[in-house]
Amino acid sequence: MAILYHHPFCPHSRFIRLSMAEMGMECDLLEERPWERREGFLLLNPAGTTPVLVEEQMSAVPGATVIAEWLDETRGLALGDRRLLPESPQARVEVRRLVNWFGRKFAEEVSEPLVSEKIYKRFMRAEHGGSSPDAAAIRAAKSNIRYHLKYIGYLIRQRNWLAGPSLTYADLCAAAHISAVDYMGDVPWDEDEHAREWYARVKSRPGFRTLMTDRVPGMQPSPVYADLDF
Fold first, then answer.
1. Contact assessment for residue 93 and residue 163, using Cβ atoms and an 8 Å cutoff
2. Which Pfam families match (predicted)?
3. I need a labelling partner for 230 at 20 to 30 A (CA). Which of 36, 119, 178, 200 fits?
Protein backbone atom coordinates (compact mmCIF):
# COMPACT_ATOMS: atom_id res chain seq x y z
CA MET A 1 0.00 0.00 0.00
CA ALA A 2 1.14 3.54 -0.71
CA ILE A 3 2.43 5.71 2.13
CA LEU A 4 1.75 9.44 2.33
CA TYR A 5 4.02 11.45 4.59
CA HIS A 6 1.90 14.43 5.58
CA HIS A 7 0.86 16.81 8.30
CA PRO A 8 -2.88 16.84 9.02
CA PHE A 9 -3.10 20.62 8.62
CA CYS A 10 -0.60 21.05 5.82
CA PRO A 11 -2.89 22.37 3.03
CA HIS A 12 -0.69 20.77 0.34
CA SER A 13 -1.02 17.40 2.07
CA ARG A 14 -4.77 17.86 2.30
CA PHE A 15 -4.91 18.45 -1.46
CA ILE A 16 -3.31 15.08 -2.12
CA ARG A 17 -5.45 13.31 0.46
CA LEU A 18 -8.57 14.66 -1.27
CA SER A 19 -7.24 13.71 -4.70
CA MET A 20 -6.45 10.15 -3.64
CA ALA A 21 -9.86 9.82 -2.05
CA GLU A 22 -11.56 10.94 -5.27
CA MET A 23 -9.58 8.26 -7.10
CA GLY A 24 -10.62 5.61 -4.60
CA MET A 25 -7.00 5.14 -3.62
CA GLU A 26 -6.13 4.05 -0.11
CA CYS A 27 -2.85 4.82 1.62
CA ASP A 28 -1.18 4.73 4.99
CA LEU A 29 -0.89 8.22 6.47
CA LEU A 30 2.31 8.93 8.38
CA GLU A 31 2.35 12.26 10.19
CA GLU A 32 5.49 14.31 9.67
CA ARG A 33 6.52 17.51 11.44
CA PRO A 34 8.57 19.10 8.66
CA TRP A 35 10.06 21.80 10.89
CA GLU A 36 11.96 19.09 12.77
CA ARG A 37 13.85 18.18 9.57
CA ARG A 38 14.04 14.51 10.46
CA GLU A 39 16.95 12.82 8.70
CA GLY A 40 14.90 9.93 7.39
CA PHE A 41 12.35 12.30 5.89
CA LEU A 42 15.04 14.48 4.30
CA LEU A 43 16.31 11.39 2.49
CA LEU A 44 12.88 11.11 0.87
CA ASN A 45 12.59 14.81 0.12
CA PRO A 46 15.68 17.02 0.60
CA ALA A 47 13.40 20.08 0.53
CA GLY A 48 11.95 18.87 3.82
CA THR A 49 8.36 19.71 2.89
CA THR A 50 5.15 17.71 2.95
CA PRO A 51 3.56 15.82 1.31
CA VAL A 52 5.67 12.94 0.01
CA LEU A 53 4.13 9.85 -1.59
CA VAL A 54 5.94 6.52 -1.53
CA GLU A 55 4.61 3.62 -3.54
CA GLU A 56 5.95 0.08 -3.67
CA GLN A 57 8.91 -0.32 -6.03
CA MET A 58 8.88 3.41 -6.77
CA SER A 59 11.10 6.26 -5.65
CA ALA A 60 9.56 8.90 -3.40
CA VAL A 61 7.33 11.42 -5.17
CA PRO A 62 7.71 14.79 -3.38
CA GLY A 63 5.46 17.83 -3.46
CA ALA A 64 1.74 18.24 -4.03
CA THR A 65 1.81 19.30 -7.69
CA VAL A 66 4.33 16.59 -8.59
CA ILE A 67 2.23 13.97 -6.81
CA ALA A 68 -0.94 15.21 -8.54
CA GLU A 69 0.72 14.88 -11.95
CA TRP A 70 2.06 11.43 -10.99
CA LEU A 71 -1.39 10.25 -9.93
CA ASP A 72 -2.90 11.46 -13.19
CA GLU A 73 -0.18 9.82 -15.27
CA THR A 74 -0.56 6.49 -13.50
CA ARG A 75 -4.32 6.42 -12.83
CA GLY A 76 -5.98 9.22 -14.79
CA LEU A 77 -7.10 7.25 -17.85
CA ALA A 78 -8.82 4.63 -15.72
CA LEU A 79 -11.02 7.31 -14.14
CA GLY A 80 -12.81 8.11 -17.39
CA ASP A 81 -15.09 11.13 -17.03
CA ARG A 82 -14.03 11.45 -13.37
CA ARG A 83 -10.47 12.31 -14.36
CA LEU A 84 -9.20 15.24 -12.29
CA LEU A 85 -6.96 16.59 -15.04
CA PRO A 86 -8.99 16.88 -18.27
CA GLU A 87 -7.79 15.44 -21.56
CA SER A 88 -8.12 18.69 -23.53
CA PRO A 89 -4.81 20.62 -23.55
CA GLN A 90 -6.63 23.93 -23.13
CA ALA A 91 -8.67 22.62 -20.21
CA ARG A 92 -5.53 21.20 -18.61
CA VAL A 93 -3.91 24.63 -18.77
CA GLU A 94 -6.81 26.18 -16.86
CA VAL A 95 -6.71 23.48 -14.18
CA ARG A 96 -2.96 23.88 -13.79
CA ARG A 97 -3.28 27.66 -13.67
CA LEU A 98 -5.73 27.46 -10.79
CA VAL A 99 -3.75 24.78 -8.96
CA ASN A 100 -0.81 27.16 -9.18
CA TRP A 101 -2.99 30.05 -7.98
CA PHE A 102 -4.19 28.28 -4.86
CA GLY A 103 -1.11 26.14 -4.28
CA ARG A 104 1.23 29.12 -4.44
CA LYS A 105 -0.53 32.49 -4.30
CA PHE A 106 -3.30 31.57 -1.86
CA ALA A 107 -0.81 29.52 0.14
CA GLU A 108 1.70 32.35 0.44
CA GLU A 109 -0.90 35.01 1.18
CA VAL A 110 -3.37 33.10 3.35
CA SER A 111 -3.13 29.45 4.31
CA GLU A 112 0.58 29.05 5.07
CA PRO A 113 0.83 32.12 7.35
CA LEU A 114 -2.32 31.18 9.25
CA VAL A 115 -1.43 27.51 9.65
CA SER A 116 2.13 28.34 10.63
CA GLU A 117 1.26 31.06 13.12
CA LYS A 118 -1.84 29.53 14.68
CA ILE A 119 -1.15 25.77 14.50
CA TYR A 120 2.47 24.85 13.79
CA LYS A 121 3.93 27.28 16.32
CA ARG A 122 1.93 25.60 19.07
CA PHE A 123 4.16 22.53 18.68
CA MET A 124 7.50 23.99 17.54
CA ARG A 125 10.39 24.24 19.97
CA ALA A 126 12.35 27.48 20.05
CA GLU A 127 15.23 25.97 18.07
CA HIS A 128 12.79 25.10 15.30
CA GLY A 129 11.31 28.59 15.13
CA GLY A 130 8.65 28.27 17.78
CA SER A 131 7.46 31.57 19.27
CA SER A 132 4.33 33.56 19.91
CA PRO A 133 2.07 34.00 16.86
CA ASP A 134 2.86 37.01 14.69
CA ALA A 135 -0.27 39.14 14.96
CA ALA A 136 0.62 41.25 11.92
CA ALA A 137 1.02 38.16 9.72
CA ILE A 138 -2.33 36.85 10.91
CA ARG A 139 -4.10 40.16 10.20
CA ALA A 140 -2.61 40.33 6.70
CA ALA A 141 -3.65 36.76 5.87
CA LYS A 142 -7.20 37.30 7.15
CA SER A 143 -7.44 40.41 5.00
CA ASN A 144 -6.06 38.67 1.92
CA ILE A 145 -8.58 35.85 2.02
CA ARG A 146 -11.38 38.24 1.14
CA TYR A 147 -10.26 38.89 -2.42
CA HIS A 148 -9.58 35.19 -2.95
CA LEU A 149 -13.17 34.42 -1.96
CA LYS A 150 -14.38 37.04 -4.42
CA TYR A 151 -12.30 35.41 -7.14
CA ILE A 152 -13.82 32.01 -6.36
CA GLY A 153 -17.27 33.57 -6.48
CA TYR A 154 -16.44 35.18 -9.83
CA LEU A 155 -15.39 31.84 -11.31
CA ILE A 156 -18.40 29.97 -9.97
CA ARG A 157 -20.82 32.53 -11.38
CA GLN A 158 -19.53 31.53 -14.82
CA ARG A 159 -18.83 27.82 -14.38
CA ASN A 160 -20.16 24.76 -12.60
CA TRP A 161 -16.76 24.12 -10.98
CA LEU A 162 -13.70 26.33 -10.68
CA ALA A 163 -11.99 25.27 -13.92
CA GLY A 164 -15.03 24.28 -15.97
CA PRO A 165 -17.97 21.87 -16.08
CA SER A 166 -16.40 19.08 -14.01
CA LEU A 167 -14.66 18.67 -10.65
CA THR A 168 -10.89 18.85 -11.12
CA TYR A 169 -7.65 19.25 -9.22
CA ALA A 170 -8.40 22.99 -9.14
CA ASP A 171 -11.39 22.48 -6.84
CA LEU A 172 -9.57 20.03 -4.60
CA CYS A 173 -6.51 22.24 -4.26
CA ALA A 174 -8.56 25.33 -3.44
CA ALA A 175 -10.81 23.46 -1.01
CA ALA A 176 -7.84 21.83 0.73
CA HIS A 177 -6.23 25.18 1.48
CA ILE A 178 -9.53 26.74 2.53
CA SER A 179 -10.34 23.79 4.80
CA ALA A 180 -7.24 24.38 6.93
CA VAL A 181 -8.20 28.04 7.32
CA ASP A 182 -11.82 27.14 7.99
CA TYR A 183 -10.77 25.00 10.96
CA MET A 184 -9.55 28.19 12.62
CA GLY A 185 -12.73 30.10 11.78
CA ASP A 186 -10.91 32.60 9.57
CA VAL A 187 -13.03 32.31 6.42
CA PRO A 188 -15.64 35.13 6.15
CA TRP A 189 -18.26 32.98 4.43
CA ASP A 190 -20.95 35.65 4.61
CA GLU A 191 -19.04 37.81 2.12
CA ASP A 192 -19.65 35.68 -0.99
CA GLU A 193 -22.57 33.26 -1.28
CA HIS A 194 -21.27 31.73 -4.53
CA ALA A 195 -17.93 30.81 -2.95
CA ARG A 196 -19.76 29.42 0.05
CA GLU A 197 -22.10 27.32 -2.13
CA TRP A 198 -19.15 25.92 -4.09
CA TYR A 199 -17.27 24.98 -0.92
CA ALA A 200 -20.35 23.30 0.53
CA ARG A 201 -20.54 21.10 -2.58
CA VAL A 202 -16.90 20.09 -2.34
CA LYS A 203 -17.11 19.56 1.43
CA SER A 204 -20.08 17.24 0.96
CA ARG A 205 -18.09 14.78 -1.13
CA PRO A 206 -17.23 11.47 0.58
CA GLY A 207 -13.49 12.08 0.23
CA PHE A 208 -13.74 15.09 2.53
CA ARG A 209 -14.89 13.04 5.51
CA THR A 210 -11.44 12.05 6.74
CA LEU A 211 -10.33 15.69 6.73
CA MET A 212 -13.29 16.65 8.86
CA THR A 213 -12.12 14.32 11.64
CA ASP A 214 -8.69 15.99 11.96
CA ARG A 215 -8.21 17.91 15.17
CA VAL A 216 -5.51 20.13 16.65
CA PRO A 217 -4.88 19.15 20.28
CA GLY A 218 -6.14 21.90 22.55
CA MET A 219 -7.79 23.79 19.68
CA GLN A 220 -11.41 23.15 18.75
CA PRO A 221 -12.55 23.67 15.14
CA SER A 222 -14.86 26.48 14.13
CA PRO A 223 -18.59 25.69 14.43
CA VAL A 224 -19.00 25.36 10.64
CA TYR A 225 -15.87 23.28 10.00
CA ALA A 226 -17.64 19.91 9.81
CA ASP A 227 -21.13 21.27 9.10
CA LEU A 228 -22.21 20.25 5.61
CA ASP A 229 -25.18 22.62 5.68
CA PHE A 230 -23.40 25.71 6.95
1. no
2. GST_C_3, GST_N_2
3. 119
The predicted pLDDT at position 128 comes to 79
Q: What are phi and psi of 119, to 5 degrees?
A: -120, -60
DSSP structure class, residue 122:
G
Closest-CA residue to 33 (of 121, 138, 157): 121
β-bridge pairing 2-6 and 27-31 = parallel
Instruction: Let me know if residue 163 belongs to a domain.
Output: yes
The pLDDT of residue 57 is 78
Give me the domain span that covers residue 105: 89-210
pTM of the entire predicted model: 0.96
pLDDT at res. 59: 85
Angle between helices 193-203 and 135-158 (to 10 degrees): 90
Residue 219, Cβ neighbours under 10 Å: how many?
A: 12
For residue 206, give the CATH number of its domain. 1.20.1050.10
Instruction: Share the mean pLDDT of the chain.
Output: 95
How large is the C-alpha radius of gyration of the chain?
Answer: 17
Please give the pLDDT value at position 152. Answer: 98
Q: DSSP letter at 108?
A: I
